[in-house]
Amino acid sequence: MIQLFCDAIIFDLDGVLVDSTACIERHWRRWAIKRGLDIDEILRVSHGMRTVDTVRMFAPDIDFVSEAAELEEREAADTDGVVAIDGAVALASSLPRGTWAVATSGTKSMATGRILHTGLPEPAVLVTADDVREGKPDPEVFLMAAQRLGVMPRRCIVIEDAPAGIAAGRAAGMHVIAVATTHAPEQLKEADVIARRLPEIRVEVADSTAGKLLVEVTA
Predict the structure, then answer these.
(1) CB atoms within 10 A of CB 145
(2) Is 78 labeled as catalytic in the residue annotation?
(3) Three-class DSSP category at 86
(4) Catalytic residue among 7, 12, 19, 53
(5) Residues 61-70: contacts with CB within 8 Å, 24+ apart?
(6) What is the pLDDT at residue 9?
(7) Which pTM value belongs to this model?
(8) Is 165 in the same domain as 185?
(9) How far apart are CA 141 and CA 47, in angstroms?
(10) Are 13 and 29 found together in one domain?
(11) Mean pLDDT (10-residue bins), the chain, 219 residues
(12) What is the pLDDT of residue 177?
């Protein structure tokens, strides 16, 4: 059992609180076929990144901004196969409001739709791709979440599932807990702690100068 103290937790959404893999991969597959691209290579790097950054990476010669917006619009309207990850609703619901945030590479419409669809509580702070200039692995999304929570970055813990998100959390100066939901543990080794699944992470309200929350991970 590993114990960490913090004042706030910043969750990634897809792959951490919501299982949207089937939906995401379905839309990337259609796009790859349309553009004649290697879907396996796209899926290898796209998890945790903004759609516009992935489209620009694989099709830099097209209007990647409008193409990404089209892709995001279709994906945001599709909830087929989108479900809450085991333990996510209970964990988020147990946290005092203002001690946690969601910071995602998805758009606001995509994130709010998935939160509503899966029955997750609405976070006090939600930072999306629409709010930032740079996507993960840039730390902007996590730094903005900490700022909106009113918590110093070093007093935050990030919970992530993808290498790009782990890199962003570390660059923000935060402790990072990885959950091996979309990637194998060996791909998540840059995290401070790796949990096999979300229920292995327990959070209690703490009365401690070390932090408001005690986070325990069975690793």
Answers:
(1) 28
(2) no
(3) coil
(4) 12
(5) 62/35
(6) 98
(7) 0.91
(8) yes
(9) 15
(10) no
(11) 96 97 92 94 88 93 91 90 97 96 96 97 97 96 98 98 97 98 95 97 90 92
(12) 98
Residues 52 and 148 in one domain: no
What contacts 129, CB < 8 A, 6 or more positions away? 50, 51, 52, 104, 105, 106, 107, 108, 135, 141
Residues 101 and 113 both lie in one domain = yes
**How many Å apart are CA 56 and CA 198, to the nearest integer?**
32
Identify whether 7 is a catalytic site residue.
Answer: no
What domain range is 185 assigned to?
2-19+82-217
Structure confidence at residue 47 (pLDDT): 81
**Which regions of 73-174 does DSSP assign to beta strands (E)?**
83-84, 100-103, 125-127, 156-160
Catalytic residue among 14, 19, 138, 161: 14
Residue 154: how many other CB atoms lie within 10 Å: 12
User: What separation in angstroms does the CA of 134 have from each of 49, 50, 142?
Assistant: 10, 9, 11
62 and 132 share one domain: no
Residue 83: predicted pLDDT: 97
Q: How far apart are CA 99 and CA 83, in angstroms?
A: 24
**Per-residue confidence (pLDDT) for residue 168, from 0 to 100:** 98
Q: What is the CATH number of the domain that holds 64?
A: 1.10.150
AA letter at 136: K
* CA-atom Rg of the chain in angstroms: 17
- Count of domains for the chain: 2
Strands (E), the chain: 2-6, 8-11, 18-19, 83-84, 100-103, 125-127, 156-160, 175-179, 193-195, 201-208, 211-217
